[in-house]
Specification:
mainly beta, 1 helix, 13% helix
């Protein structure tokens, strides 16, 4: 009886492995919503948009929820801000909306202005409408180019991995408002 159970388990294991292998070989080539990726299934998807971080005015898109422990800190060390920032096709605030950046940034550097940024890029238009990407990483806001990893996603971006490049397009020293150009390269 034990020998028969071992054979049955072996056959079931082989069948399960065959089904898993078929899914691995063919599953990633199609997106969950039925959209085809680029002709080359190994090519990353490139997304380009502008991030509008508004901390001033009557309707800010980012708010400070914890002040720095030391109010004279040049790096705002310890500050925590929560954001729900619009993402647009162009740098003008009135350009076509493509989504929202929802998350937080925390000042974690005592030497230079640098944040731990964690956000969901929630896409609301185009072929990836309803999908999102999760980005988490170090954002040294004074650097010309910042790179943060894409660690996951939903919808068309399930199992996503890649990186986001951020470049400040415009920064207002008086208000603290910023417009940041994002290029996101993602495998999914």
């Amino acid at each position: 009886m034990a020998k028969g159970a071992v054979i049955i388990l072996l056959v079931l294991s082989m069948a399960l492995a065959a089904v898993s292998e078929a899914h691995v070989q063919h599953g990633p080539r199609r997106l969950s919503r039925g959209h085809r990726r680029a002709a080359d299934p190994d090519a990353p998807t490139h997304l380009h948009f502008y991030f509008h971080d508004t901390v001033s005015g009557k309707s800010p898109s980012a708010v400070k929820v914890a002040a720095p422990a030391n109010s004279t800190s040049q790096t705002f060390f310890g500050m925590v801000s929560v954001m729900d920032d619009p993402l647009t096709e162009g740098p003008e605030p009135g350009s076509a909306a493509v989504g929202r950046a929802q998350g937080m940034y925390i000042s974690t550097d005592q030497v230079q202005p640098g944040f731990l940024q964690t956000m969901n890029l929630v896409l609301t238009s185009g072929p990836y409408n309803g999908s999102s990407l999760t980005v988490i990483g170090r954002n040294c806001i004074l650097a010309d180019l910042r790179e943060m990893p894409v660690v996951g996603g939903t919808g068309a971006f399930r199992f996503a991995r890649g990186y986001a490049e951020a470049r400040t397009h415009r920064f207002n020293l008086k208000t603290g408002d910023a417009i940041v150009k994002y290029d996101v390269y993602v495998m999914h």
